[in-house]
Amino acid sequence: MKLAILGTGFISRFYTEALLAHRRKDTITVVFGRSNEKAKRFADEFNIPHYTSDLYEAVGYPDADSVIVGLSNDMHLEAVLACAAERKHVLCTKPLGRNASEALTMLRAVEKAGIIGGYLEDLCYTPKFLKSLASIQSGAIGDVIWTKSRETHPGPHSDWFWNKERAGGGAIIDLGCHCAAISRNFIGKDIRPVEVMCWADTRVHPIDAEDNAIGLVKYANGAIGQFEVSWSFRGGMDLRDEVMGTEGTIWTNNFLRTGFEMFSTGNRGAYVAEKAESSHGWLFPVGDEVHELGYSHMFTDMFDAIDKSRQPKETFYDGYIVNAILDAAYRSAKTRQWEAVVIEDWRGTDEVKIRHGLVDYDKDHYLIKEEVLPSGEKKIIVKNKITGSIEKR
Length: 393
Ligand SMILES: NC(=O)c1ccc[n+]([C@@H]2O[C@H](COP(=O)([O-])OP(=O)(O)OC[C@H]3O[C@@H](n4cnc5c(N)ncnc54)[C@H](O)[C@@H]3O)[C@@H](O)[C@H]2O)c1
Hints:
- The protein is α/β, with parallel strands linked by helices.
- The protein has helices at 10-20, 36-46, 55-60, 76-86, 100-113, 127-137, 164-167, 171-187, 289-292, 295-307, 316-335; strands spanning 2-6, 27-32, 50-52, 66-69, 89-93, 117-120, 144-152, 193-201, 212-219, 224-230, 238-245, 248-253, 262-264, 281-283, 339-340, 360-362, 365-372, 378-384, 390-392.
- The strands form 4 sheets. A 7-stranded mixed sheet has the order 12-11-7-10-9-8-15. A 6-stranded parallel sheet has the order 3-2-1-4-5-6, sandwiched between helices. A 4-stranded antiparallel sheet has the order 16-17-18-19, with no helix packed on it.
- The chain is globular and about 75 Å long.
- The structure holds nicotinamide-adenine-dinucleotide.
């Protein structure tokens, strides 16, 4: 793959490190940066042969087949439309749009141009996520009834994130997009997200946008995808997921407490991990950040998809659905009501079974609960199918 990368900031650096790691054959041939100076510095550091401060020149660069968008949220639409005009495959970071309307415009543009629009939702490619998803899809934990995805940290690293207009919101759009995408995968992408109830507030920072929020996304099969986001969590970056199924449970911790603990006096401090707040005392480093955050698997899937003219696992359509969910979350935070998820172009199923959880105990009763108590007594609680009475066996 010959790639153009747009952006020289935080995520472009992570992407570039992932792309150049482990003898990968893909090359970045051109980088766009807002200033020539920054673009040159980035190009020099990563041996990129061409740099420019003209976005359109980078997108149209003849020696690049595909474009990676690592720009601030307010620039995604313009960058994607430029790629569509050049008919270059485009891989865009999260969130796809600042809202569903922007995301839908991008989705339609790539489909009209006949190019692949890959949604760079890295947290749906972490090794732990991929294994969890495979376990769920194999039926190992039964029917998923509730998922919980949490991303909290002390707040983002650049000014534009804190500007509600430029970012499209606060912690919900910035972090909730990951959570919504994760839960949607676990519950099933085919299942329609129906409505959202959300609390959001600005608790700590002097900004217009929300810095804390919790939301419940209800799906057509009754499942709930809960998200928890914060820009004021102290102690690093907390990335955790939970899945509750009728036959099992999954808990993952992606960043803090990954099984790697280190103590340092901090006297000769060094980088620990993204958003780590301290470099002394007991620390929680991450072994291979780029890999553990999913970038390696993500780019492999994206490039294989381009090579084989198939869709990647995370597409612009997925980015659009996530934006639609978050739009409903913002409406709900204002109205304090459940708000419908408005999807103009639903491509999943509308035939879903709501799970009732009825397990036969015998021909006249359903089983409610079986438990062995500390006394050794076994309790069996059942419900009479005809009278509805709840009885102990
Ligand atoms: N895990 C992830 O997937 C992840 C993590 C961090 C950021 N991101 C996303 O990556 C994107 C960039 O975030 P970042 O953390 O790299 O931010 P950053 O501030 O470090 O970098 C932003 C880049 O956009 C450029 N830029 C900003 N305003 C511009 C403008 N008006 N015109 C042209 N270029 C402009 C900057 O020069 C810089 O190169 C955002 O959409 C963010 O949500 C994704």
